[in-house]
Design goal:
Chains A, B: FAD binds at residues 205-211, 218-221, 269-275. The structure is a homodimer of 568-residue chains. The first copy, chain A, is of the alpha+beta class. The first copy, chain A, has helices at 28-36, 62-72, 81-86, 93-100, 117-129, 186-194, 212-218, 225-228, 231-234, 261-265, 299-310, 324-332, 339-343, 346-354, 373-389, 398-406, 410-419, 436-454, 487-504, 523-542; strands spanning 77-78, 110-112, 133-137, 157-161, 168-172, 177-181, 198-199, 235-242, 245-249, 274-281, 283-284, 288-296, 318-322, 363-371, 393-396, 422-432, 457-468, 471-481. Helix content of chain A is 36%, strand content 20%.
Chain lengths: 568, 568
């Protein structure tokens, strides 16, 4: 562990000692039992001790070690087993399954912690001179296998932890721009901005354990993107260390200077170089911030309302709606005395029943408002009309407040579930509005059939998370009861059926989780073979030796996925 | 001339027979006389007859002609002199100077008019097999030398006029997306959309003589981009014919599938292939559309107001402000009984003087509003507060209505001026807000000095045209009195001083006119040498034979510009 650089558990999400608890949520255990037949109240096996892992020895040469020591100082060149294992994977459930089972893959030979951009330049030069593979590492929360070396990699593997580059360098208060080092974690960045009255407004689910550089490298989106934009909108300039040179893109609101190099770095996942800092749009903290909750009689009605909101005169900060199963999940996950469980209170239930709603089909929605008090009032009025037109029902601020408090906790539930033989993960897509309802139905159907075929119990639910003029992102969460030795294969089936459905039904392979190796098999279906060809030529042009995070994005498919075809 | 494909004059902008008139604008001639010493009321020399041009013979081989005939039909393979000359240049003033002087450069050997995407595929294959150079041609309005072959080009040059691909193919009414062929001119496209109740909302100055494909290939922006976005936002999917393959990007609201291939095609100016169709965001025609005019005591106050508007709760369709000289120009260009000239009426003048304003320093602003009547009222209220805080004065809808009617006419004035020995053109940049006022002042100063050094009279004025959260585009228009044989050199000095100032003072080389050959000398200063290296590798990877519009964007400088350095 390096002082000042936070590190996640080797076996799971987040900090050691922090975990999900079900005991204060009395409806949760019965919900899980009913849905997938697992009793989560039973005692579980403890996580194996780290010492039981067979960690491959570092293959770092004395020569490269010597050079790296010279560049960053010996203290910042780590080759101990735990540091290397923590940097071997991201935090997809497939990563967690593998690491818990001692399947460590091609563990990096060294983890380097540069403290300046110049050190990044020098360490990259040293690594390339040694023909090593270089993999940038931010918060370590990637779920698409973008942080791991290829299994057959025979060259030395250098993981570059960017955590020491974590400072807000400058705010241009007149322009609303901040220059920030790329290795900063979400909360540390917002703390530095908030202290001066600013916010970036970028809050992905991974916020606590992801970095500015990671967001840029994977084209991340945050929960408030309807107002603040995706990271591709927020990031206006950047610096990236490339082989033998440094790319410097000054902050510009918009430009027509040829094919956008900024947009080539966005989503490049380390294949073009290492992002060291970025200029981002920042906003004054809003006078009022409010999340309002609504219920709709069906998910389709909620989708329609979200579409009408973003194409109306309103400009909300967030428009989100959960499908019926996710709505049940959220309500089941409320504390005994909590606000969410009180949603299901008698008065509201009675009203819904009076309206003729089927309580199994209701959809919970959150809409976020920001601005002056007057503006928030005005916008709430516009949204109220849309909600009414779509048969919805406002239930006030309470649930939204709770959502805000708990919004980063979901990954801890995943570890809790995995302890109990439940494989959970997420996958997201975006489609035009015309296909939003259809793709949701089809994925639920295909997923159920795939689970039947496997003979396991599983569920998938979804929410609309990000809205745009012509379409939206839907975010799917799945859980499968499988405590066998086949967890990886089971996960692969689930993942395949979802990803294949995305590209089959007008969706992208990933709205904001990137490609890595995990999504690479579907890239030709997403952006057409010519699109993949263009990306390949770009990577080959910049990195002819294939040293920069090889195998990511453009790849013939991740090992273990023999085929991307699904019999639907 | 091909039936159904509109063609501009060989010597100037737009349709034969349409021209600017000054006679009904009594203040204009005195304004020009005062500013640059030219009497525009004197008779002018007529344009030389086309027959006086020495047009180089077509070098099209019989073999390639035969293949092209087979692909598109002989009617659509044109080698006559006038067609070839019309396709030799865009419509920058440097192009106009050259063509009027009979300096035709490397005229294309053939102009081909494909009628389907398949024909584009086949003609590209035939051209590449013959090792020909291929230059896509939309409306022909490019002003950065992106449509011309390199002067020393020894290979056959094929200009591909996309004008027959001009149909609206499909509207996805549920998503607000339209699939449109790339060769459609602005008015033809909007007519087809409007007929079904939709608009794309993209209105660049070149609207009448530019195409969807051209907008995408040059990263265009329209006057209403504050609401509708730049073309990079509007274009959600596209088809591009590449050597040996076709790129198909389905329409997606947002995606994280690696470096954005969509954003590589945007701004590619023919260097990656030929764009044949695109999926674009379209919007329902607004219930209310209103342009309000305001005066500010200074340009700086107007800039500040625009910045405050876009960072306020308001979401306007346009926020535009002209500097004092452009304000004078607009007022001088008003008809005798017109609304703009009435701006200068006694009552308003009196009010301004009472406020202590210097009438030589006032800045005219237009702010556009769209939405329901109620929403427009609400937004006008928000803007009124900002205007008041910045000392501005509302003068109603009249001037905006006139602006709307005349907004596409400016290029005709340029021809009128050139007839009278006045070299006029435009150049635009974007900067963060912090540098907006500074760059304006510095360009005015540098330009004046450069004209003094040349011993000619010239002027430059400017308006803020597009606003973003962290900055804005400023659009400069210059005019220089020079009826000598040195017009090209004089233009080069003016262009150089402006472009160099852009990159010196935090601006981009071009906000929405693209790069071509004209702006290529400043690209390393704009996006850093590593950025140009990335673009170069991309082009080389896709087009190793350098057949696709060679020399554009990435280039060592356009011929005739020996140095990009300016002694400021």
């Amino acid at each position: 562990m390096i002082e000042g650089v936070k590190q996640q558990k080797w076996w799971g999400w987040g900090e050691e000692g922090k975990a999900y608890r079900h005991e204060d949520k009395p409806k949760f255990a019965p919900f899980v039992k009913k849905m997938v037949g697992v009793d989560i109240t039973l005692p579980v096996k403890p996580i194996r001790p780290f010492s039981s892992l067979e960690v491959p020895a570092s293959q770092l040469s004395d020569e490269l070690r010597g050079k790296l020591n010279t560049v960053v100082g010996g203290k910042y060149v780590q080759t101990d087993d735990e540091t290397r294992v923590v940097h071997a994977y991201g935090k997809g459930v497939r990563d967690l399954i593998r690491v818990r089972n001692g399947k460590l893959g091609r563990v990096p030979d060294v983890v380097v912690y540069p403290g300046t951009q110049r050190e990044v330049e020098l360490l990259l030069a040293a690594a390339l001179e040694a023909d090593a593979v270089v993999i940038p590492f931010g918060g370590g929360s990637n779920i698409v296998a973008s942080l791991e070396a290829e299994p057959g990699e025979t060259r030395q593997v250098v993981s570059v932890n960017m955590g020491r580059l974590n400072k807000l360098l400058e705010i241009d208060e007149e322009s609303g721009l901040a220059h920030i080092e790329a290795g900063v974690l979400g909360p540390d960045m917002e703390d530095q901005l908030n202290a001066r009255g600013w916010t970036m407004g970028h809050h992905p689910d991974s916020f606590v354990w992801s970095t500015l550089g990671g967001w840029i490298a994977t084209r991340s989106s945050g929960m408030q993107s309807d107002k603040y934009g995706d990271i591709a909108d927020i990031c206006r300039g950047l610096t990236m260390v490339m082989p033998g040179q440094v790319l410097t893109l000054r902050p510009l609101p918009s430009s027509s200077s040829g094919p956008s190099v900024r947009e080539m770095v966005l989503g490049s996942e380390g294949r073009l170089g290492i992002i060291t800092s970025a200029w981002v749009n920042v906003h004054r903290l809003p006078e009022v911030r409010e999340l309002q909750a609504y219920f709709f009689p069906t998910y389709e009605a909620g989708l329609k309302a979200c579409e009408e909101i973003v194409t109306s005169d309103a400009t909300v900060m967030m428009a989100r709606v959960s499908d019926p199963l996710e709505t049940q999940y959220i309500m089941a996950n409320g504390k005994k005395s909590g606000r969410v469980s009180s949603l299901a209170n008698k008065a509201i239930q009675k009203l819904m029943l009076q309206k003729g709603w089927d309580l199994e089909k209701i959809a919970l929605s959150f809409v976020g408002f920001e601005g002056s008090a007057n503006h928030v009032r005005y916008e709430k009025g516009l949204v109220a009309k849309v909600v009414k037109n779509n048969g919805g029902l406002g239930v006030g601020k309470g649930p939204g407040t709770l959502y805000d408090q708990k919004k980063y906790d979901t990954p801890y539930i995943r570890d809790f579930m995995l302890d109990r033989g439940l494989i959970c993960d997420v996958s997201d897509t975006s489609t035009p509005w015309a296909y939003a309802a259809e793709i949701h139905t089809l994925i639920l159907d295909r997923f159920a059939k795939a689970m039947d075929d496997l003979g396991v119990r599983g569920l998938v639910f979804c929410h609309l998370s990000h809205s745009y003029h012509s379409g939206a992102c839907q975010y799917f969460t799945f859980a499968i009861a499988d405590d066998s030795d086949n967890q990886e294969a089971t996960y692969d089936v689930a993942k395949r059926v979802i990803q294949q459905s995305f590209v089959d039904f007008h969706g992208t392979v990933s709205h904001h989780h990137g490609v890595g190796e995990e999504h690479s098999p579907w890239m030709e279906e997403d952006i057409s073979p010519a699109g993949v060809y263009i990306q390949r030529k770009l990577f080959e042009g910049i990195d002819p030796g294939n040293n920069l995070n090889p195998g990511k994005i453009v790849h013939d498919g991740r090992p273990g996925v023999s085929s991307n075809s699904v019999d639907a």
